[in-house]
Amino acid sequence: MVAIAYFGPRDLVLIPHPTYGEYEIACRLADADVLKQLMRKETNFHLDIAETVDLIRKHQPKGIFLCNPNNPTGQYLAKEEVKQILSVSKDGLVILDEAYIAFTENAWTSLDLVNRGNLLIVRSMTKDYALAGLRLGYAIAAAPIISVLKRVRPPWNVSAVAQEAGIAALNADGYIEECGNKIQEAKSFLAKELTHLGLSPLPSQTNFFLVEVGNGAEFRQALLKSGILVRDCASFGLPNYIRLAPRTLPECHRLIAAIKDTGVCSRGS
């Protein structure tokens, strides 16, 4: 909806890379031009804010997409970094995707930045409450931005089933906190065991992380033989990496055992 409402032919949109691929697809469908800012392995794919500010000042993009924490790198921008971007983007809309904010360590609130008038926050109940098939999320922005989005919003864009599930989820007191504790325990276990296997995960502040394995597609295929599916990151432009998100502890134990049994750990760099 953002791309349809705000971008058109020859409009320029800034998108850090690697990141969630649907931003670029949406912009291309609106016939907008995409400027990619590359994040580098040497800094664990953390966004260079000074470079971002320079690009915004030079090109004056109509929009800037920020995935925070970023998918697939797990890097999380500080509030001051986002404020810097907002300050130099007065003529552009900053779309802050916080789909994984509920899983983020030491998360800060972005809600008090909405009154700046050039920020749209996107969040996902799909992620928060494991409602993947129901497609339920929401946006937060100043009233004029929401008004523009309403003009292009499809009628009946949220199903009755998704609405009922969302209400039930919001009434599940303590669910997110309980899951967060379990995820942190499983994430710590995975990071420790992978490091012992020579597959040290990159630093991440959310519930997934990148692991350099040499050839992500081969690594994925080897584990498939054990009935385990991992995400290789070729579609993000990172063919040497996989992205892992912890499941239950027994499943994490099974993953580590499968990596040992298949010998794929020897393919890491």
Description:
The strands form two sheets. The protein has a six-stranded mixed sheet with strand order 2-1-3-4-5-6, with helices on both faces. The chain has a three-stranded antiparallel sheet with strand order 7-9-8, covered by helices on one side. It starts with a helix and ends in a 7-residue tail after the last helix. Strand 3, helix 4 and strand 4 form a beta-alpha-beta unit. With 269 residues, the protein is an alpha/beta fold. 39% of the residues lie in helices and 17% in strands. The protein contains ten helices and nine strands. It has two domains: 2-170, 3-Layer(aba) Sandwich (Aspartate Aminotransferase, domain 2), CATH 3.40.640.10; 175-267, Aspartate Aminotransferase, domain 1.
Could you list some keywords that capture this structure?
globular; 3-stranded antiparallel sheet; Aspartate Aminotransferase, domain 1; 10 helices; single chain; 269 residues; alpha/beta; Aspartate Aminotransferase, domain 2
